[in-house]
Every structure is written in C-alpha cells, then in structure tokens.
Design brief:
7 helices
Length: 155
C-alpha cells in the first residue's frame, strides 16, 4: 500500500466550514424549537382578558414560572404560583381548582412558550378547559405582556 491510501482524511478549511455550518444549523434549529411556542387548539386569552376574567372568578389564573422569576418580576395579581417543574404539579393544581378537570384554568409564563407546552400536556392529562395566555408576563409576539400592560403584580 502506498502512503497516500493510508493517510487520514485531511480536514481542510472547506470541510471545517461545512462541519461548523452543520453544527451551527443544528444549534439554531434546536434553539428555535426551544424558544418557539408550539401550536395548539386550546383557547387563548390576552393578558387584559385574563386579568378581568380572573377578577370575576370566571377562570383560575396559574403562573407556572419559577420562584426565581416570581421574585424578579412579581406574580400577576390573583394568580396562583405553581412551578411547572414540580413533580406534583397536577396535584398542586388540583389543590387550587379541585378535582373538576373541566374547570377553566388559564396558564401564564414569561413569554408564552412554557404555557403553550403545559396547555398541551394538561389537555393530554385529561383537563379539558385549559387556556393559554400567550403574551406572558414579559410579552411576546402575541402582545406586550402583563407587566408592559401595567396590570397589577404582587411581590
């Protein structure tokens, strides 16, 4: 065998560029999927509607963000803070709304991504009146959000 057939493939600039573009593309797609709210068929409310409807008792508003986020921005007035990462999230939610899986429950997070995901999960778990607040506390492409709409928060 000649030495040319035993040589390892050479990583030239073109190959490095292609590998880098492939990795960068994969990271970009992953980031886009992580930061983009999934589509769902459940009802959606603006932050103003959510605020009004929770004040009149038409819905139970649940802030599914983390304790760190609650401390940073406050919690939407009237919302029940339940960290969606809790292992007993469904039990904690039922502690607030009872066993009725048809009770209207609106979910809010920071920018509408986690609330959309949790809306889907809870619907799959048998809750049939889960409502998404896609603007979130900080705003999203759906709207300015709770805080920028100057709606009341509790610290």
């Amino acid at each position: 065998m000649s030495t040319s057939t035993l040589r390892r493939p050479h990583l030239n600039r073109r190959r490095l560029l292609l590998v880098g573009l492939g990795i960068g593309g994969a990271v970009a797609v992953g980031r886009w999927r992580y930061l983009t709210a999934p589509e769902h068929l459940n009802a959606k409310l603006s932050v103003q509607e959510a605020h009004t409807r929770q004040k009149t008792g038409e819905i139970t508003l649940v802030d599914i963000r983390t304790p760190r986020e609650w401390a940073a921005t406050g919690i939407a007035e009237g919302a029940h803070p339940i960290d969606m990462r809790r292992d007993d999230f469904v039990e904690a939610l039922q502690g607030v709304v009872g066993e009725n899986r048809s009770a209207p429950i609106a979910l809010i997070c920071a920018r509408g991504v986690r609330s959309a995901r949790m809306t889907i999960r809870l619907s799959e778990a048998g809750f049939n009146n889960i409502i998404d607040v896609p603007e979130g506390m900080l705003g999203s492409k759906a709207g300015p959000g709770w805080i920028n709409s100057n709606l009341p928060v509790v610290r």
